[in-house]
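EI: anyone free to look at a 160-residue chain?
SC: sure, send it
EI:
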Amino acid sequence: MLKSELIDLFAVQPGFKILDITSHADDITQMLEKQIPQDGRLSVVMYEGEHSFTKTLQSTRTQSISSLSRPFRALPRDNDIVFIRDVLDRHTHPEKILELAYTTLANAATIVIISDSLKAQIALQMLDRCDFRAINIVDSMQHNLTVVTGKKMHMWGKGL
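SC: here you go
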C-alpha cells in the first residue's frame, strides 16, 4: 500500500532524477528504481544501517556513508525529487541534510520526507526554516508513517 501511495505523489517525466536518502535501502528503493525512465537516474544515499537493495539499472548511483554525522554529496540542481527516509530524525545535523537537499533540487522540485507520525510536525517546521514552500502532510500511511512534502520554489527564499 505504501509503495503505490508514494508513486501517486509524483509524475515521472523523461530525464527524471530521484535521490533517495535512507539508512535502509529496501523494496521502496527498488520501487523507485522501477519508476525511472531510460534517460533518468536514481541516486541512493545509504547511511549506516541494513540495506537489502540491489541495483538493477546501470544508471543507478549509490553512495555509502558510514556515520549519521556526515553529510551526503550531490550536485546543485541535479534532482527532480528527493526522498528522505529514517535519516532526518537520527542525523546529528538534520537541517544540514535539508539544506543539501534544497541545493540539489531543481527549481519547482519536490522533497518527500517519510517519518514516524509523531515527528511530522517537527519535519514541517524544519522544512519551513530551510525555505521550502507548499509544505503539506499527506495523510498517515501504513505502519504509523506520515509523508511530508515540500517544494523548492524559484525566487523564493534561497530558490535561485
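EI: The radius of gyration is 14 Å.
SC: 👍
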